[in-house]
Amino acid sequence: MKTNPGRFFEDYSLGEVIRHAVPRTVGAGERALYHALYPARGAVSSSDEFARSVGLAASPLDDLVAFHTVFGKTVPDISLNAVANLGYAEGRWLRPVWPGDTLRSESEVIGLKETSSGTTGVVWVRTRGLNQRGEAVLDYVRWVLVRKRWREVEVPVHVPELAPVVAPEALVVPEGLDFGRHDFGLSGEPHRWGDYAVGEVIDHVDAVTVEEAEHMLATRLWQNTAKVHFDVTQREDGKRLIYGGHVISLARSLSFNGLANAHFIAGLNAGAHVNPCFAGDTVRAWSEVLDRAETAAPSVGALRLRLVATRGAAGELRGADGKYLPEVLLDLDYWALLPR
Amino acid sequence: MKTNPGRFFEDYSLGEVIRHAVPRTVGAGERALYHALYPARGAVSSSDEFARSVGLAASPLDDLVAFHTVFGKTVPDISLNAVANLGYAEGRWLRPVWPGDTLRSESEVIGLKETSSGTTGVVWVRTRGLNQRGEAVLDYVRWVLVRKRWREVEVPVHVPELAPVVAPEALVVPEGLDFGRHDFGLSGEPHRWGDYAVGEVIDHVDAVTVEEAEHMLATRLWQNTAKVHFDVTQREDGKRLIYGGHVISLARSLSFNGLANAHFIAGLNAGAHVNPCFAGDTVRAWSEVLDRAETAAPSVGALRLRLVATRGAAGELRGADGKYLPEVLLDLDYWALLPR
Amino acid sequence: MKTNPGRFFEDYSLGEVIRHAVPRTVGAGERALYHALYPARGAVSSSDEFARSVGLAASPLDDLVAFHTVFGKTVPDISLNAVANLGYAEGRWLRPVWPGDTLRSESEVIGLKETSSGTTGVVWVRTRGLNQRGEAVLDYVRWVLVRKRWREVEVPVHVPELAPVVAPEALVVPEGLDFGRHDFGLSGEPHRWGDYAVGEVIDHVDAVTVEEAEHMLATRLWQNTAKVHFDVTQREDGKRLIYGGHVISLARSLSFNGLANAHFIAGLNAGAHVNPCFAGDTVRAWSEVLDRAETAAPSVGALRLRLVATRGAAGELRGADGKYLPEVLLDLDYWALLPR
């Protein structure tokens, strides 16, 4: 067999490091496409001039371009036979990605646990994105439910201990970043870090009705090859399942309206793709401020935010039974960096 | 409230200058996307080599990339609560936009007039696009019908005097432009400025059936956030209204076939988005030569052109009643620069 | 008439060289769009770093970007009134296309033959793509069935002799290419040239359901103006015919899975667009190894491959009657370069 059948649960071993294929140079083209695919408007990732005014050398690529590119490379090795993407934890953005950088990924298997059904198992990996100088740009844990090849094989159990939240002290502020001369007129909103209160809920107001062509363009751009996103014959209902990361980028971009100055994503605490998203869905977003923290840089504050993508109303997440509402698509918990 | 509710009629005051948010660096990615989204084929904006052959340093971005980028920035402040985009006047392209340039916009309120209904008002703004050196690249007037917040408030009336046509002497020829060695073989057509006669009508022959994904990609690329373009829940008929500028770019690109050498847009005299455009419409274009003028550059002539986008036949614009035909989408009056 | 009506059969004369219009600079934007439009993952055209590791200065644009760009320019002169694209032969990629290069095309008429119906004729052209230094980057023969203007005119017959296969000695290995330190881990697959056996059939497994927006974005990007791709009023069934080259790129990109190390296309031996492709079709691909050859570079081997795009099953090409099956879209015969 010349083609990649993907790995099954038995094919992973604890501590193994998988070097993922196809390094990718990203640049001006990916930036333009990101702006065409998502309603992204953050001033730092839109403008070289603005980025320079806050101490950077140029406008870095959107933090989610780094995430999707690094994630996409892991798909052939991690999630080609995955039944579900179960969660994210301990994600940290370690260094901006600049136009012209070349990214590759590697993943260490840090946990394995068979499910009670005996036909699947959970695999935990810590994935690192590296640039052309071998510097880590991103680091995160995700775990997926993967099919077993045979029922009988036993695999040693190891469930990793994962921090429920990235400690604010561990967040990395991009080198040189100084919000001291941040232009709140040009960035689009006057709100500083101190203007956000824990518990505050922000309805981001705007919405996007999703098209097949758009999510496929995006998903291919990240070289994510999971068949369900592209091939209508993969599911009985003939629908293409939209890549969860597409929903993350949609929601994050929509959150500009109310969080225009949350320029950077610094940490990914947790995330759940609660319900599948399909073309034709009209996606809106709302955020809840979960926590606030100072950072090592005096001009930079961190907000811990819950970002929810939904087909329903802002502020609604779970029903009376404590379960996610069927309209909810994404529940993401992340740290953003804002001017203090 | 952290989000932008948009301005209402009462929120504008005469003489006020609004600095619009989110400067944007444009470059190779935007150029490629422009060519993917529209059937643009002008040699100057397709080829660095061709641009050099007519005296420029490199291929500038399409003049409409400048227009859309500058226009898009104004939407959150000018047209978020607009009922209609009523017109354009006195538009001038003042300087090419080069890959790597960063654009921002500012608008001066130059006119205000309540409508007889008492629920809306007309706002006139003069918008300027500026590059990273603070040089104006584009300047135009547009006026929009905006909702009032309260019925009772009275606003002083000022209707600006606007020139019906940009005077040819006021048109700016890009610095260095010299069509003396213009290669009519490579540009696609042999027609010079002198080959066009006033009154001549050109059927541009080609047509494009518009898709939802395409107009949304384009409109997002210009960071235009008007909800009606993206969200099917905004209108009772569940349709997404296509950004008028998308139709302008479609028509202008289609006009290559017959106006291949009309390389630059130098002036915008007037423009009406006559009927709404929706996905599924098959758009074609025709032009009428309205006037001819010399410019300060001996090798460069100006043509005043009516550019019509329509779902109907070329040459047909108004019915017996003098009203625009329902098939007509756009009636644009502009100055183009051609080799003499 | 200011617009281009296209040429008819009588408008071609043997030996004539047609210089096609609109040179085009390609770069980072076109590369990103290629990755968004097709599931392309070849390491050499994805990564500057990987390209350097095999002796190149940077990552060249995908060989099919060169093909489509060069081909697109010929459409207004060669195939605007074409009834069918009949075949390709003697195609050779002569030099990589680098970001920033400007391409133009010219075609020599090398064959003419009226069909028995008297209403059409076959035109053979040898098309060359040239960069800004006038160096040939690509050379191929294609022949098309073109409408006659009048029934009565007689045109001298000349049918060119075409090689059934490009001789391996004539294939050009990109200057500097050295697969000696090729990283098979990063490229995605361990298979070398020597691992492929003549007669071997590879099912590329993945599939893509095609959308209207995608094929139109692609076809416009190559400035291919044939009306049938964009305008639903062109065909009685209201369908837009997908540009055959879109299917070539889809199939070639899908073939990564099994041919990840077939980094370059060096020769095009033959090709047939067997059945039309329309939006909604789910396209898959399979390859057959037709031949193997050494090249002048010791680390580089050539594989002659049949690449089939189909809506049906892998390995199935023709029915019992010897005719192509209705599911088959493309039968392409090409030379690829791989590490030995």
TrEMBL record, chains A, B, C:
Cross-referenced Pfam families: MC_hydratase
InterPro entries: HotDog_dom_sf, MC_hydratase, MCH/BMMD, Thiol_ester_hydratase_Rv0216
Signal peptide extent: none
Protein known as: MaoC family dehydratase
